[in-house]
């Protein structure tokens, strides 16, 4: 039995809808354009790629387990054991004021297709796109494994 808990970002459903509609409409228009306007077909292929990217972004998630915390993003996975989680504290980025999970040492980030080879590292995970406060499901899960890290 797995103890993993998965938390998706807030706007997942709307991003999946927008990405799916973009792909379906672009595929239809690409097929129609290929028949009637061959020069426009390549433009619709670009929209198919954009729609796929939107769907990839929609699948951003945080996975919590007894082993640690993982952030899954489009093409990347960041992993850190609980012993490396330093605190949950305010984070400011341009016009966004939110909370972030900070690490003692930068967490390793991997390509999903090469999970054994780190490509970079990050110092924190901003959690503004997730439903988060101390009493949210994500907050309770974090508090279960690291109750000492809350500074909110």
Protein architecture, described:
This protein has 152 residues and is α+β, with helices and mostly antiparallel strands. The chain has two domains: 11-58; 61-149. The chain is 34% helix and 38% strand. It contains three helices and seven strands, in the order E-H-H-E-E-E-E-E-E-H. The protein has helices at residues 12-36, 41-58, 137-145; strands spanning 5-8, 61-64, 68-73, 76-81, 85-93, 96-111, 114-126. A hairpin with a 3-residue loop joins strand 2 (61-64) and strand 3 (68-73). Helix 1 (12-36) runs antiparallel to helix 2. The longest helix has 25 residues, at 12-36. The protein is elongated, with a radius of gyration of 19 Å. The chain starts with a strand and ends in a 7-residue tail after the last helix. The mean pLDDT is 79.
List keywords for this structure.
152 residues, alpha+beta, 2 domains, 7-stranded antiparallel β-sheet, 3 helices, 7 strands
The overall pLDDT average reads 79
How many helices does DSSP assign? 3
Count of individual beta strands = 7
Order of secondary-structure elements: EHHEEEEEEH
C-alpha end-to-end distance: 33 Å
Instruction: Assess the beta-strand content as a share of residues.
Output: 35-45%
Share of residues in helices: 25-40%
Structural class: alpha+beta
Count the domains.
2
Low-confidence stretches: none
Write the layout of secondary structure elements.
Elements: E1 5-8, H1 12-36, H2 41-58, E2 61-64, E3 68-73, E4 76-81, E5 85-93, E6 96-111, E7 114-126, H3 137-145
Antiparallel strand pairs: 1-2, 2-3, 3-4, 4-6, 5-6, 6-7
Helix pairs in contact: 1-2
């Amino acid at each position: 039995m797995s103890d993993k808990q998965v938390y998706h970002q807030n706007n997942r459903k709307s991003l999946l809808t927008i990405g799916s509609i973009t792909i379906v409409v672009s595929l239809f228009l690409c097929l129609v354009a290929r028949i009637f306007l061959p020069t426009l077909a390549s433009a619709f292929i670009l929209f198919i790629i954009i729609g796929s990217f939107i769907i990839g972004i929609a699948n951003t998630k945080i996975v919590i387990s007894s082993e640690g915390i993982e952030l899954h993003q489009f093409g990347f996975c960041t992993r850190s054991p609980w012993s490396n989680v330093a605190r949950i504290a305010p984070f400011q980025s341009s016009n966004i004021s939110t909370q972030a999970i900070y690490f003692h040492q930068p967490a390793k980030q991997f390509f999903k297709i090469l999970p054994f080879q780190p490509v970079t590292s990050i110092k924190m995970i901003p959690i503004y796109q997730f439903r988060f406060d101390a009493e949210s499901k994500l907050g309770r899960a974090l508090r279960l494994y690291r109750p000492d890290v809350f500074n909110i």
